[in-house]
Amino acid sequence: MSSNTAASVVDAPEASHGGHHDPVANKIGMWLFLFTEVLLFGALFIAFAVYLSIYRWDFQEASAHLDMPIGAANTAILLTSSLTMALAIAALSRANKKLALHLLVVTLLLAAAFLVLKSFEWGHKFSHDLYPRSATMELKAEGEQVFYGLYFTMTGLHALHVLLGGAAILFAMGLIWKDRIRPDRISFLENVGLYWHLVDLVWIFLFPLFYLIG
Amino acid sequence: MTTAAVPLTPAVPDYLRAKQGLLAWLTTTDHKRIGIMYMIGMLVFFLFAACMAIIFRLELYSPGQQLVENDVYNRLLTLHGVAMIFLFIIPGIPAVFGNFFLPIMIGAEDVAFPRLNLLSWYCYLIGGLLALVAVMTGGPDTGWTFYVPYSMSTEHNVLIPMAAAFILGWSSILTGLNFVTTVHRMRSKEMGWFQMPLFIWSLYATGWVQLLATPVVGITLVLVLLDKYVGVAIFNPASGGDPILYQHMFWIYSHPAVYIMILPAMGVVSEIIPTFSRKTIFGYKFIAFSSIAIASIGSLVWAHHMFTSGMADVARIVFSFLTFFVAVPSAVKVFNWLATMYKGSIYLGPPMVWALTFIFLFSIGGLTGLINGALSLDLHIHDTSFVVAHFHYTMFGGTIVIFFAAMHYWWPKMFGRLYNMRSAYVAAGLFFIGFNLTYFPLFIAGMRGMPRRYADYLPEYLVYHRLSTIGSWILVSSILLMLGNLLHSLFKGRRAEDNPWGGATLEWQTQTPPPVLNFNGEPDLSRGPYEYPTEVEA
Amino acid sequence: MTQHESEHADHHVVPYGLYVRVWAALLLLTAITVTASTLDMKHVTVLTAMVIAVSKALLVLLYFMHIRFEKRIYVWMILTVLGAYGVFIGLTFTDYWYR
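^ inputs. structure came back:
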């Protein structure tokens, strides 16, 4: 607050609401938001655990038919994108704007690669008549139907998060370009980074549960 | 903030007169205006949901069909529940009074994220309008719990009300996120955690429950929609799903949600009782920690809603056992309030009368909750009107009564006007009679086997239903009288002083109504939130 | 009016090399978990996969997400969340294990 007179308070009352910059508050707020995301996916993991305990053998059977190499490649891709994201933040906080932007471009490319591989994988399943309510699906064992239901829901929701994270990275790049994000005002980029690492964290659990239990 | 140059009153306009016009309100980031906008929305939805209740209570006036067909009855019942729970009781006290008073009570200018706060309100508005659209398009008949597999097979539209619940969930999450961050970062420098008013403690604990439980129900509703409209197999028993898992995931949120409803109400009571007893709150730390304890233990007991659903016996026994523990911190609060009043200099102003009504009704609600929580008894009374009476005593007699108490307590501060005291007492008295007449007979009917959610009943239940319907008329008149009295005060009420009740928390230090930035100068924190100058020695 | 304590103290500068080493460890763990899944380990398949996933998650949390360098309050918050989640999943299984 720097207003000295009542007049200046009257002139800009709304500006003072929300004009305040507190990076620690931003960080706490972001972590709290990440917690809601953890519980959002967490609920799905509870469903997964329950059905795994009921349909142990059906899940193993269905899991064996997922494309493990693509899953493993996507894991490596996301882990690497997490690295470039962390490096980008480190570079910008050392005032190396050019390096930071380059690293973010790499991060975006890796995100795109992840989504392309994911769509190949889904497309492959669809072309084998494996999608909700398809004729082949309805002939499968109950546990396998549930497995595929969870597979499409969870990887779909995760892909949506990759997409949103990519959009956020693009937006942050614009702000860096215009020097709205800079070494002394880096909180937005840090929060985008936290979000991106969370997307990675979720995949770290999705990958073994879907692809490696077969 | 340099205060020396600021002439105190009246150079600074209050928040109501700052920027006029509808657009200024709809784009405001002032937490006080957002609180008022929530209040308007909520009272509209409350009256709307109350109308539905009046209609189906009339249907129950006599056995057989009186007014509406069975199908219409089911839909009225569902929308009554959805509107009351998601649009009024869950967001109620935090969104209205939390928004308005949390920043003021901790000596801040606003919440941590004011624009996010406005976004929460728009989420609320969109969710509410979707619920109205659901009514126009017929409305679902599933009950507010949307249990599968019926919600997947019903002909009625469940997409819109579920989407409404999902969006309202985000409104709730964002409010919780905002409040938790605000409490961490925006407290006045001199205010430590244990100098915070207890209302703030309760909002803080509530905020965490909102953050951690709401996403679970959000994704669960999405799963039902995916199952119903896309055919993704999750809960559908025809493709291997387990409907009881839906109930688990639904109640993992919806049971903690009852603590989202009641904790802020308990916080308000902890403000009103010491103010009107002129005496420091008894056991500050116990009340503060009991809020945390209720939030934590309340998250361990969800499956006591499912004792007759077909769970394993072990789960039923564990959940029944855990349920009893919630009573401990709740009782801690009630005993502390009573001890605060003991040998106090009690002034029975209207807010205090409402708060005492709360203690009475909520104790009945809480104790009947123990009956419901006991596994062996619940098998007998599950899905009877005993349960209906129980949760109306806790939610209506608890949360809504305190919403009314808070309106009477803070109304002079929010609008600068005092309401007519005599009408306020008459309304509160009528309410007490009407409430007990409406709901107490349902306990007895339930014990004798009257199922809930039925449009018709055997003649032997006539007396209970008739008493209840007559009670509902008294109840609704008392509420209309109360709201009329408050509205009337806006235009004709006496001007309120800055501190009409002699409260010691920070909102009573600032001018009435508060200025845009809440304080003209730094608030004085040398006194604790419950230190009264004229305190009586106990 | 807000608390401005140590706003810049928590901007710990992490050397690039540390991030690269963490990334290498993560890739190594991925390779291990893929290899382990090809062995026939019967009942411990899921357990092994989960133990490795948790170690990877810890690396990401501690280094990429900076928890190692943040104030203790974040650790408490994360433990609260994990505790709540553990309770949700644990109590759900009091039903499914004994059905």
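Residues 142-177 of chain A form the longest helix (36 residues). Residues 10 and 55 of chain A are 66 Å apart (CA to CA).
thumbs up if we can close this ticket
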